[in-house]
Design goal:
With 461 residues, the chain is an alpha/beta fold. Helices cover 34% and strands 16% of the residues. The protein is built from 16 helices and 14 strands. The protein has an 8-stranded mixed beta sheet with strand order 13-12-11-7-10-9-8-14. Strands 3-2-1-4-5-6 form a 6-stranded parallel beta sheet, with helices on both faces. Strand 2, helix 3 and strand 3 form a beta-alpha-beta unit. Helix 13 packs across helix 14. The protein is globular and about 60 Å long.
């Protein structure tokens, strides 16, 4: 890793804190940005790695303000789980999460009130898995510390905010042989799982293009005083690029065998100006002194479009817009040589020619034929438990299923890094007139032989 950092010093870009692990030509000339010549030497391949099975998965939660609090309640319903600890900087949040599972067998210890209380959770010898749902800037430091203390990690999206942090996750997971799974719940939504299963069985032919998006009007929510501690979510919007790429990218990356037969080669990213966040900050500041620090700031543009080309010559388009008044869309589009699938606008649709989408009756038949085993097993239970329609529960259930049965995870540390790295790399592309930027090969070349994701549940009788 030192060689990578030394190389960056020679380029004069390392001080930006964005390109560690990814070298550059002279940015001032506009000649493009390329990856460094220092290749990652993989210490241990975490793709397909099955850690020793755990009869009971003992969990410590760090961060239970929003997503984490819901995860505590979901995990309490899964067999083979013991919730040992709950940590949040705010005592009232930790206490509320414990009270939410008061009628269950789980009796977690609480940690709160000081910034480093979370480290005590990671240092315990009676915990197997650390579940992290804190502000984004804490994800990598907490995940690395957890793995260094012999814990598997499940970390909310994005897993990392800089290229250097991505490398930290890779190197720590390989060194410790501890799983680092990014909690990309959209990979476990029903249509996304259906299209993954269809792709595995050749329904689409060769998948040549995919699209994903996160289009969600969060303008007022991002400015809400009590929603996020210290307004961290609003502050993250000072950056440009695609700040939240993984919801759209994760499911299509699995379909396209990214890191498992193909890899993302380079990207080009372009953003519009900001037409809404700065004006809102100015208006709010005129009425409330609380918002004065945000007035006059530069915020991300309304829309970012990032296009990715893979090593096998396939393409992916990812969009991000969290301010425009438009209907919610988490676009999921799979385009192959034989068929296409698309969700958003709803309902989800499939076509096998350029003339018509399949009929509702044909769609039902396809859903019955290609229903994934995990949906057959727990789909109805997931809908009842909830969490974004059930996909959150399926994600948690599958994580525990893999850990208890000694199975490889569906999403490994290479996915966490390569899906998260789109955020900093897109920002750099936007800042440099949308020049193309190489995407690091976090697998050290093992993507050529790694096996595709296959959620078969063959271990279940």
């Amino acid at each position: 890793m030192n060689n990578r950092r030394d190389f960056l010093k020679l380029t004069g870009i390392a001080g930006a804190g964005l390109l560690a692990g990814c070298g550059t030509r002279n940015l001032a000339t506009g000649s493009g940005i390329v990856s460094d010549s220092v290749k990652h030497t993989q210490k241990f391949n975490m793709s397909g790695y099955a850690a020793p099975a755990l009869s009971t998965v003992r969990i410590g939660f760090i961060g239970v303000g929003n997503r984490g609090a819901a995860a505590v309640k979901r995990m309490a319903k899964i067999e083979g789980v013991e919730i040992k600890a709950i940590c949040d900087l705010r005592p009232e949040k930790a206490t509320a999460s414990k009270q939410a599972i008061a009628n269950t067998p789980h009796k977690p210890d609480l940690y709160s009130g000081a910034e480093n209380e979370w480290k005590k959770v990671c240092e315990r010898s009676d915990i197997d898995l650390i579940y992290i749902a804190t502000p984004w800037n804490l994800h990598t430091p907490m995940a690395v510390f957890s793995m260094e203390h012999d814990k598997h990690v499940a970390v909310e999206v994005p897993a990392a905010e800089t290229v250097e942090e991505c490398w930290q996750l890779i190197e720590t997971s390989e060194k410790t042989k501890k799983h680092c799974m990014m909690l990309e719940n959209c990979c476990y939504d029903f249509f996304e799982l259906l299209t993954l299963n269809m792709a595995r069985q050749g329904f689409f032919g060769e998948v040549v293009h995919a699209e994903g998006a996160y289009l969600h009007d969060l303008l007022e929510e991002n400015f809400a005083k009590e929603k996020y501690q210290n307004m961290w979510r609003l502050r993250d919007n000072y950056q440009s690029g695609n700040l939240y790429p993984t919801h759209g990218l994760g499911p299509v990356a699995q379909v396209m065998d990214i890191n498992r037969g193909d890899k993302m080669d380079y990207l080009v990213s372009v953003s519009s100006n900001d037409f809404m966040m700065a004006p809102m900050a100015k208006d709010l500041a005129a009425k409330d002194d609380f918002y004065k620090e945000f007035a006059g700031k530069s915020f991300r543009g309304n829309m970012n479009v990032t296009t990715i080309r893979t090593s096998k010559g396939k393409t992916i388009m990812i969009q991000h817009d969290v301010t425009s008044p438009r209907p919610y869309s988490r676009l999921h589009l799979i385009s192959g040589t034989k068929a296409i699938a698309q969700k958003y606008p709803l309902p989800a649709r499939i076509a096998t020619n350029h003339l018509n989408w399949v009929t509702p009756e044909e769609m039902k038949a396809l859903e019955a034929k290609y229903q994934p085993p995990i949906v057959k097993k727990i789909g109805e239970m997931a809908k009842k438990v909830g969490g974004h329609g059930g996909m959150d529960f399926m994600m948690d259930w599958r994580l525990i299923d893999c850990l208890r049965n000694g199975l490889p995870l569906d999403m490994d540390v290479y996915d966490a890094a390569s899906w998260s790295v789109i955020k900093p790399l897109s920002e750099i592309s936007v800042a440099n007139r949308s020049n193309s930027i190489d995407i690091p090969d976090f697998t050290g070349g093992s993507w050529k032989a790694n096996k595709p994701v296959d959620i078969t549940l063959s271990h279940i009788k």
